Each structure stands twice: as C-alpha cells, then as structure tokens.
Amino acid sequence: MNLALWLERVAAVAGERPALFRGETCVADYAAFQRAAAGVAEGLSARGIAPGDRVALFMKNVPDYLIALYGIWIAGAAAVPINAKLHPREAQVILQDTQARAVFATDGLAEGLADIVDTPIFGMDTLFEMAAGEPREIAPRAADDLAWLFFTSGTTGRPKGVIITHGMLSTMSLSYLADVDEVSPEDGAYYMAPMSHGAGLYALVHVLKGARHICPPSGGFDTGELLAAARAQGPLHMFMAPTMVRRITDAAKAAGDRAQGIKTVVYGGGPMYVSDIEEAVDWFGPKFVQIYGQGECPMSISALSRAEVADRVHPDWHDRLASVGRAQSVVEVAIGDAEGNPVAPGDVGEIMVRGHTVMPGYWQNPEATAKTIQNGWLMTGDMGFLDTHGYLTLRDRSKDVIISGGTNVYPREVEEALLTHPEVREVSVVGRPSAEWGEDIVAFVVADGVDEAALDAHVLAQIARFKRPKAYFFTDELPKNNYGKVLKTELRERLKEMDA
Ligand code: AMP
Questions:
Q1: Residue 129, CB-side half-sphere exposure with 13 Å CA sphere
Q2: What CATH number is given for 402-499 in this structure?
Q3: Is the CB of 384 under 6 A from ligand 1?
Q4: CA-CA 20 to 30 A from 202: which of 100, 236, 437, 495?
C-alpha cells in the first residue's frame, strides 16, 4: 500500500480541514495539500522520474516539505530526506550514494549545492510550478517497496542509508496510535526538530488522522516561539530531543508559562536524565511520552507512556522513569550476550529487536547489513537490560562502555550521578586509554562555580568508588551533532590531543 493513500482519503472526506501552516498562517487545507502533492508527482514524472527512483529533500522545516514528500510518494519514487544542517559536501555524498535522480532544496541550501553536484536541483519555484500543474494518480506500491532512505545521524564514521519501506512506515504509524498517543483532527503537529528525522516520520500519523501540520517561522527550536505557538495554536504535539526538553523547561519556568497549549511532547533520540524529566513533568504536567528507536527501527522499539512517566505513586515509578518503557506492539525486544544468546532478566547485554518495523538492511551495503542483522534480529549496538515486567533500561552504546580494571562501567550511570549536582548543567563521561587500568573514567562537565573536589565528593556519595571519574575537564559546551547528540568520539579525540 502506498502511504500517500492516507492523504488522498483524508482529502476525499475532509478536504476543507486546515492542513499546512507556516506559523499561524494556513497555507493549504487537505484538498489543496493533496492537489499540490499530486501536481508534484506529475511534475516529477514529466521530468523522467519513475517508480523506485530516489528523490532527495535538502530542505529546512517548511510546509512545502510535506508537499514534496507526498509528491515523491504519489509518483512511486522514494524520498531521501537529508538533514538541512549538513554541509553541502555531506549532502553531496548522500546524493551520490543513493544515485538520487533529483533533489528538492529550499532557498539558501540550493545555492550551496549548485556548484558541486550534477543532480538536478529543484528549488522552491520549481516545486510551486509542479504543485500547480496537472495532478497524477497514486502509483501502486507494495509493502516492501522503498519509501524513505534514512541517513543515520552518525556520531561515528560515515552515515549509512537505512532502507525504510512503505510497510514499515504504516506499521510504525499504527504502533504510534497503539503505544504512544492518540491523535485527533484538532491537534497540530509542530515541527521544530529536523523533518528529515523523527519529527518528519511523525507527520504520517498526523496525515492519517487529518490533523494540522505547523512549521514555526524560524524553522527550528526557539523557546519563545514555541511558547507563543502553544498559546495561539494548541493543542500541539511535538518531538523533542532531551536537550530541548531541558531548554523549554528552563524558558517556561523563567516566563512563568505552563504552556497549556502543548498536548504531547514525545522525547527520545538520546538519554533523558531522570532529574530533567521529573522537573519537566512537575512544571508542565503529564504531557511527556518517551520513545526509543533508531533509524534501523524508526521510532518504534519501545515507549514509556504519559501515565507511566507521570505516575508518582507507583512503587517502581522512579526506576520506570529511568527506563525507555516497554516494547512497542509491533516488535519483540530481547537482550543478548556477545553471541546473541538470551540473558536472564536484569542482566545487561546488547538490545536486539525483530518485527515489522525493523529495516530489511542498509542501502547497498551488504557488509554493514550482515553485521547488524543477525539471525533475523537487529543488533542495535545499544546495551541495556529488561526487568521481569518488560521494562527496558538503556545503558550506553556498546562502544561507549568503559572497561576499567576489567570491570564494565556505564558512563550514563556516572553522568546521572553528576547531573544531580545543582551546579552541573551538562556532562559527558568517556574512557581514556590507561596503561594501568585499560581505561580511565574521565568527565567533561559544563558547570558554574564548582570544583573537582566538590564533584568528587558528590559522586562518591552516590555510586561505587571504582566508577568515580579520575579526571574532570570543565568546558563551556559539549560537542554535539546536528540532532543534539553528544559526540563522544570528539571528546575522546580531545583526550588524545591532550595526551600528545
Ligand atoms: P538514530 O539512528 O540517529 O535515530 O540514533 C538512534 C540511537 O539513539 C539509539 O540507538 C540510541 O543509542 C539512542 N536513543 C534513541 N532513543 C533513545 C532514548 N529514548 N533514550 C536513550 N537513547 C536513545
């Protein structure tokens, strides 16, 4: 089933419903949205793009993103969403790797590509021209046909393209309704995080339910803009990385604004520290749902519902808050040892997933696929454990685990301990090669007016002595990738340079 059918069906019964917004301005109802996307499909076909071809999107968060995306699908082609924050040279690598037949690019980004790629670039003028043209019928697509090539955020190495099919995305969207949140036509999906990633994947369920799609004029995350939008345009739904939750909590508290217009914040994509989510729920109320996923199983490995996040009376509430919830309905989750054999509840191992939303493999990369899909299981590279009730708690990426004196130390645990210090704003813990211990634990800290001795005492009051950092490095900010994930590889590089 072609995912674009959902758009066609909503347009057929509720075409007058407001669909696409730039800030507070409605730029298309569902009938106009469908009509424009079908026009884009015809424009693509007229330019020789056939079902199965790849068409890239190098676009900021604008309402036209969804017109281009659905236009690509109606034509039967596959979308290659590229993070708008990437350098044009990085975008070029993705265009080459996917043999994209064309790329839609917003103003500013198109110019950067023009000199370095042969791929035809469709600027916004071309997109509008296509959108106004004759509409095209939806091309039939099978469940295992490619819909979206997802480039992993790549905190290490060169990004890989994940094959995401129409079947995976429809199942992911239904799993959202089963495990994450309900969606009603009055809701507005508010796009602050890049639409090339999770935020954009969530557009689908909002199309299915005929909800509004709102792109902030800034195209990104601006706390003042979000609080104003919540007042004027709620109920709003949004995806946030943990750092965004931290920032909106600070901003809303400073403004004395409880942001009633925010209905749901889905958070994930990186570790959420318990103290941060507690504070956010204290201030905003039960609006937070956590999901755990990765490009290889988009948005759909596990979920911790709003009730579970907010249920303070439950005896296990605190442990559950530190978990990433339970397996979503459409997947199986297991923990494996180094050979992939199941381990006992409570034991830490690699998180393995199988089910309807797991990728068939990486784009034209059989070696990487063979390493990642083993005996039908997706080996996530994340370490964690399951409790007897099925709650999954993440430790760290397997490559981030520190082995010091033969013992595994999970950086997250040390980070959680440091973050409970009131002066510590951000922290990242990594291993530093050590002749004596194999690795030493060291912490990079963003903090005001606190010294090493105070942090050391604070950590020792909470966790075992062998887990305490041997060294602290104070820094103004932590290096992060375009999705806000801390680049531990870069911190390890810094350590190497210091040693040299
Ligand atoms: P990506 O494929 O770029 O979306 O990155 C996925 C990775 O982000 C996962 O493998 C995890 O390491 C991390 N991640 C995603 N969701 C969560 C979460 N809720 N808590 C902690 N880490 C997460």
A1: 10
A2: 3.30.300.30
A3: no
A4: 100
Tokens of 218: 């800034």
- Name the residue type at position 314: H
Q: State the average pLDDT for the chain.
A: 94
The answer, as to whether pTM is greater than 0.85, is yes
Q: Residues near 238 by Cβ (< 8 Å), separated by ≥ 6? A: 189, 190, 191, 192, 193, 199, 226, 262, 264, 265, 266
Q: Strands 212-215 and 18-22, how do they pair? A: parallel
- CATH no. for 4-386: 3.40.50.12780
Q: With a 6 A CB cut-off, is 120 part of the ligand 1 pocket?
A: no
Question: Which residues 6+ apart lie within 8 Å of 40 measured at CB?
Answer: 67, 68, 70, 71, 72, 74, 75, 127, 130, 131
The ranges assigned to domains in the chain are: 4-386, 402-499
* Beta strands per DSSP E along 126-194: 146-151, 161-165, 188-190
Nearest Cα neighbor of 133 from 3, 72, 11, 44 is 44
- In this predicted model, what pLDDT tens digit does every residue of 247-286 receive, in sequence order? 999 999 999 999 999 999 999 988 888 989 999 999 999 9
Q: Which atom of ligand 1 is nearest to the CA of 301?
A: 16
Is 196's C-beta closer than 6 angstroms to any atom of ligand 1? no
pLDDT in tens, 93-114: 999 999 999 999 999 999 999 9
Residue 294 Cβ < 6 Å to ligand 1: yes
